[in-house]
């Protein structure tokens, strides 16, 4: 849809459908959509790429038809915003373009999909306590979410302010369920007015970004910082849950009611011009440090943080000449060091604090460096313990340093894990291919495994050999060492074969025929086939093997033993010669078969066994 020219009002319809396109504002005419209902079925643009002088207003209810619709507002003129005062329902909104989109009116919007502000400004200016947004909000890119009145966002919604995004609270207060700050800024208030952002039910997820001095974070919730980067809270915050920092830097200004704990390796950033006053505790673990912004004046003591109790022994993350960090138990201070040096050196690892190396490789430690406020020279770092790459295990290297005044640095450690990454090697005992006569006993020769570290490695065998049944059998040998390195499997092929012989035994059977009649070895007893004859019919009944699909037992016939070819033609069964089932009493179903041929002349009938490769 593209609307331009001097047409200003669109009111003579019950429904306006926006199917995409552009609502132009390049003229000075304001566009007024006063239809009862507006149905949006595609993304659309308000304003061309050039600056327009007209505004666009939607007063009817707007149905997003179950999808997230991108509204691109191109007119950057602040007083010519696009205004939606009707109820928006059924979908989500993605605000794009440099212009301003304003929600106003006296009725709450009901759409619950994500509201994304990626560019320009989305102003929430409905009547105070009337929800302009019911669902979650993401502000990123160059977008700004601006409050034009208090309580514009549903109390159950979560708001994320990401890199480049701004949540401008102006002079309004807001309550939400959860807040995530990942690089954006939360602004509001002024020199005489502070605004409160109350987080009601979930954790404050504070990773990076800033809050301004007049923004108060409130609520009975905890705050977590778990990634690198710096987040700075500048307001007089009143949230009461624990603030836990496990990675990166937390900057504090103003006042606080939250217990703050910093893990090993994290940094608390404090400002000389904005000391923190807290009604709760502050704790430092391990090598958590304090960084100070601002330039101290000689012979002046600075209170950086005052709390109910301060525990731990933090050091300055960077030396400040002439000053040392002091913890009185309730006040963290930057104090003049006078003529005596009481500041501990600071050790910095070269490389990572955790490493993994393969057993047998060469390990060269990268070491560490130390800095001190009286440098140069910097203290020498000493290393205790060593890494033996011939033996798998976990090795902890400790680094220490002492400055010329005798101040010991906090010990820094590096953990080196030596792992066995070499798999065992399997060697067959005996040949890789073995032939065994049918029915003969088979004892596998097995295999052995050797390993670069383990003195004994067990080899397991998968597969068995059944010498009662001709065929090809594969035995697979596997092994793993204590470090769970798996060897490359090794296989042995065992072929069980029936002797290719036409020699018959005392009972008239070849080895293959004996197998066909159910024997599991050449010496097994088998049931002899039974013959019967009438004047017109010759029959041979036998119990034959049915558990080997490679075995074929057929009845064949001919009329002259001295000439001609044995054939299955005329012998019972389908296909011809396969016989028909006889009485199965005492045998497995299908084993007893009758091979019958009808004849009025002299005829010979025999059983013929064939074993496919």
What tags apply to this protein structure?
single chain; 613 residues; mainly beta; Immunoglobulin-like; 30-stranded parallel β-sheet; 5-stranded mixed β-sheet; 1% helix; elongated; disordered N terminus
The portion of residues assigned to helices is: under 10%
Main sheet summary: 30 strands, parallel
Radius of gyration, Cα only, in angstroms? 44 Å
- Could you give the count of β-strands? 56
Spatial shape: elongated
- What is the subunit arrangement here? single chain
Q: What's the mean pLDDT score?
A: 89
Secondary-structure content class: mainly beta
Strand proportion: 35-45%
Tell me the distance between the termini: 76 Å
Low-confidence parts lasting 5 or more residues at pLDDT below 50?
Answer: 1-8, 48-53
Number of helices: 1
Summary?
The chain has 613 residues and is mainly β.
How would you describe this structure to a colleague?
By secondary structure, the protein is mainly beta. Among the domains are: 346-419, Immunoglobulin-like, CATH 2.60.40.10; 425-497, Immunoglobulins (Immunoglobulin-like, Sandwich), CATH 2.60.40.10; 511-611. The chain is 1% helix and 43% strand. The chain is built from one helix and 56 strands. The protein has a 30-stranded parallel beta sheet that branches. Strands 28-31-34-38-37 form a five-stranded mixed beta sheet, with no helix packed on it. A four-stranded mixed beta sheet has the order 40-44-43-42, with no helix packed on it. 36% of the residues are buried.
